[in-house]
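Narrative summary of target 7.
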Amino acid sequence: MNRSCIPPFWHPAFSEGFILDWDGVLAETRLSFAAIREKYFEGKFVPLFEAIAALPPDQAEELKKDIYDVEMQGAEKAEAVPGAQELLEWLSVQDIPWCVVSRNCMDSITLAAARAGLQLPEVVKSRDNPPVKPDPGALWSGAAEMGVPSAKCVMVGDFLYDLVGARRAGIRAVLVQRPEAEWKHWADVSFDNMRGFVASLKSPEPLVPWEYALIEADKLKAAASKGVRLSAMSPYLLSECMKKAAEGVLYFLIDDPLSPLSPDQWRIMPGLAPSWLDQPVREVLRALLQSRFPMTEVVEKELRGISFLDR
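Modeled conformation, tokenized:
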């Protein structure tokens, strides 16, 4: 690994599995559902597949057919996104597994792949096999079928649902092909086009992950060289650790890791499930930190090169 990309910094080049959206990332089909939204929802932007359940059965079936027809018409004219083949070649050379997770139907994906000259991977998740993005289960399923832990994957997409799905799944997210998108803030990093993304993969530079987006890189680097040593009996143990993690601290050492979580510690940490009461405080802290700051570690002893401060 590029030493400059060690935690808390990151780059998608070091991910162990790639989850790729299909339309707009690999194949360009120029789909437009504006007419469908006008027909069924007075032009309002709604998630179409999720809205089907709210319609009367006859209208729901008609909507499904209209969506299918639009997708197949787009697939008939599909072209490879500029840079898509270069991405797949890079993944092949690096021997990194990849899959497709799409909201499109499988028929349109297969047709678009043939028209665009793109070879599909072994794992292709379409809306024909629920759950569907942004449900995190869609991404977890793709990662599982590749045989890669989801936390070690990256999602590459061109639309909001890709990014929201990744965030819900605890997966890094890359936005491509949408330089004017209003929802870039959902992504760990964005690239104006696929070729720019591939160039970055070939020459990776350290990036600040999404959870530290509000911290300047120099301050983040400084915080990451520090650890925190805490008493397992402190009622403020969890809240203090979360506060320091938000500042970029990565390492946490507890003097008695098997000490059970007390009622006072539970009360002071809003939102913590009651099921954690009386569980080892180390496991509670690890789960809590990982849910928000996946690069953090609860360590068993002090680490060389890390300055531990008592709290």
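Residues 266 and 273 are 8 Å apart (CA to CA).
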